[in-house]
Amino acid sequence: MTDHRTPLDSVLGTVGETPLVGVQAAPEEVPVYAKLETFNPGASVKDRIGKYMVEAMLDRGELAPGGTVIEPTAGNTGIGFAIAAGQLGVDAVFVVPERFSVEKQQLMDALGAEVINTPTEDGMGGAIERAHQLADELDDAVVPQQFGNPLNVEAHYETTAPEIYDALDGEVGAVVAGCGTAGTLMGIAEYALEQNEDTYVAAVEPEGSLYAETKGGDAAEAEYKIEGIGTHDPSTNELFDPDLVDEIYQVPDRRAHEELKRLASEEGQLVASSAGAASAVARHVAEGIRDGEIDAPYDSVVTVFPDSSERYLSKGIYRSFEEWEG
Ligand code: PMP
To answer: Which of 96, 135, 232, 287 has the greatest count of CB atoms below 10 A from its CB?
Structure first.
């Protein structure tokens, strides 16, 4: 952790302690604060789990110095793990479905990791299977498995959540976050509910994703452009606990795109589609609290902006909705 005022030995020391910035379009009566995870050295929220999980696995002896981490990942996790692995003397291999952005894959490669692609149509399930096959073929290899490893949740419980609560003197009414593995939301929600069991917790997923089914909701499976959140098979998202969540919100691609463009043009925020979706829902929840439709212990909403739009320029993120490839 850093206060950014003393010299550090490694970029690993700059992971976390990201700023919390108000979303200016939120209602005045119920402010929305976004944790800007682009301030991490690999420019995403996943640097937190890379550092936390590699350090924990080395401490516990589950991973030996000089060993290999093999992870199925949509990209940001690979960058976070690649930074941590490189700095902690471990090799890294990532299995990435083809549809994910080339920028992320180039960064993993630059950080010294090996990238293996799996067919888009096999989804994250196909990438997870391939990662385990590779681990069986190598000596001293572990699959941290961010989709099922409680250390993913713990990283946020131990770092992201206390940072938020410190910044707001504990006065958090609602927590809103997009769910990929759901590590971010679960870690913050667990902490939040310990502080105040009435904290309102909202999960965000793209329309077309199926987390909603876990709370008995109707969800029609469809492709979506929003990157980094959502699932087509909730059974692979083992960390998601619907009991910690009050509501699962589905965001259409068009709404997320409109909001990420608005965040750039009106608020100087260069964030990507999962942040656009989170912002749209966080503002909606804040309005609900203001209008008395949602009960929350404080008049404030916290969300997370996971990564930067710069990572998706090749996919036309700032072009028209139709031209955005997602
Ligand atoms: N947004 C982006 C851009 C991501 O890469 C991820 C991680 N897949 C998330 C949001 C969601 O984070 P989590 O896996 O902790 O739910």
So the answer is: 96
